[in-house]
Amino acid sequence: MDLSYITSGSVSSHEDFESEDLSGTESQIYGVSRELVQSGHSVSIIRAGSESSGPVNAEGIQIYDVQAPEYPTEVGTILSKLIFSRRAADKIRELNPDLVNVIMKYPTVFIYNLQYPVVHFAFNNPADLRHTKPWLARNVTGFVESRIARNVDGMVVRNPNVKSWAEEHSNGEVVQIPTAVHPEKYTDDGDEKYLLYGGRLSSEKNIGHLIRAFSSLGSSIRGEYTLAIVGEGPEKASLKSLADNHGVADSVNFYPWLEKSEFVEVISRATCAVLPSEYEGMPVFVLEAMACGKPVIGSDIPGIRQLISHGETGLLFDKRDIASLTARIERLLSAPRERERLGRNARRRVQTKYNFADVASQYLALYRKLTSNE
To answer: If phi over 0 gives left and psi between -120 and 50 gives alpha, with beta otherwise, what is residue 107?
Structure first.
């Protein structure tokens, strides 16, 4: 089978597949692509670049850059992605694959009317954006997602919440396929006494809740543990001010985006990981921590709930209840044996359910079903 993947369409999120220093979403594209190539399929990846070039061969995957303009405003970013979508459609006609799988909304707009079966990866139920997005952005997102859902041949979703929305709006095949990692690449390298958050520093991640919860811990615990926050985003300055205002600036350490290998090392030495998000698809960060044998404290939402069984592979808390988050942190930090048990169970779950070999086979089953209907 000849398959093409199209990435986010933004030059700012251009990913170096050749080095595998990838963000969560692109790690999924590359991991699945590599498994499919090893199974004898032909795979190309189309990404946004400052100029058009390629192909570059990465472990048998053909990677093409398609030029996308860069505009500084939010509206400009959308326009850039639409221009990329139009140019990516031309590249697809040139490659003539059996099927196209598009990541993100706007790069899909000029793709779904092509003659090839098109699969769209839906991250979120647009209704989940109501608490975190301005009215205009929320409604435009909902309109675009709904239009795409009605026109594509298949949709891949991560959790039941998004699946319910997709089944209501889509005329195509809707399949829930989990996120994956390579478990063999992750190890537990001890406990260096810090809690870890890794990801975008934006409002929907509720990182302010985590800082407030950390500041509410007893002085003896805060004297022993620190909080490490790895990532970049629009909330960084306000989060630093929040830590300062709550008197924990000396114990809350902010780090920029790290190279993948370095970030994995940071996870492997953490005491536990925390993800307090408002909504998620199925976060790679949680899987990576579980693969390292680390217990994870996560908000009780679809996407995280699919990965964490409360009291078995980690702990869940009410995303709006800071006291609940504080209690979960105190519980883990005061119980090393429970941390060990949860971490051991978490790693076992990743090994058996969330590896790329199994996940790639689920994608392939969908692709075969859609191409057999042609």
So the answer is: alpha
Per-block average pLDDT, block size 10, for the chain (374 residues)?
88 63 79 94 93 92 92 83 93 96 88 91 66 61 83 92 90 94 94 96 95 94 95 95 96 93 95 95 94 97 93 95 96 95 97 93 96 75
Quote the CA–CA distance of 106 and 326 in Å, as a whole number. Answer: 39
Here the tokens at position 203 are 């409002």
Contact in structure between 292 and 186 (CB atoms under 8 Å): yes
Name all domains of the chain by residue range, CATH numbers in brackets. 2-180+355-372 (3.40.50.2000), 183-353 (3.40.50.2000)
Global pTM exceeds 0.85: yes
The answer to whether the bond into 183 is cis (omega within 30° of 0) is no
Question: Distance (Å, rounded) from C-alpha 65 to C-alpha 110?
Answer: 17
Q: Given CA atoms 93, 95, 98, 102 in this order, what sign does their dihedral have?
A: negative
Q: Tokens standing for 194?
A: 């810090």
**Structure tokens given for 79:** 């326009």
Q: What angle do helix axes 135-151 and 160-169 make, rounded to 10 degrees?
A: 70
Per-residue pLDDT at 77 = 83
How far apart, in whole angstroms, are the C-alpha atoms of residue 168 and residue 67? 35
3-class secondary structure for the chain? CEEEEECCCCHHHCCECCCCECCHHHHHHHHHHHHHHHCCCEEEEEEEECCCEEEEEECCEEEEEEECCCCCCHHHHHHHHHHHHHHHHHHHHHHCCCEEEEECCHHHCCCCCCCCCEEEECCCCHHHHHHCCCHHHHHHHHHHHHHHHHHCCEEEECCHHHHHHHHHHCCCEEEECCCCECHHHCCCCCCCCEEEEECCCCHHHCHHHHHHHHHCCCHHHHHHCEEEEECCCCCHHHHHHHHHHCCCCCCEEEECCCCHHHHHHHHHCCCEEEECCCCCCCCHHHHHHHHCCCCEEEECCCCCCCCCCECCCEEEECCCCHHHHHHHHHHHHCCHHHHHHHHHHHHHHHHHHCEHHHHHHHHHHHHHHHHHCC
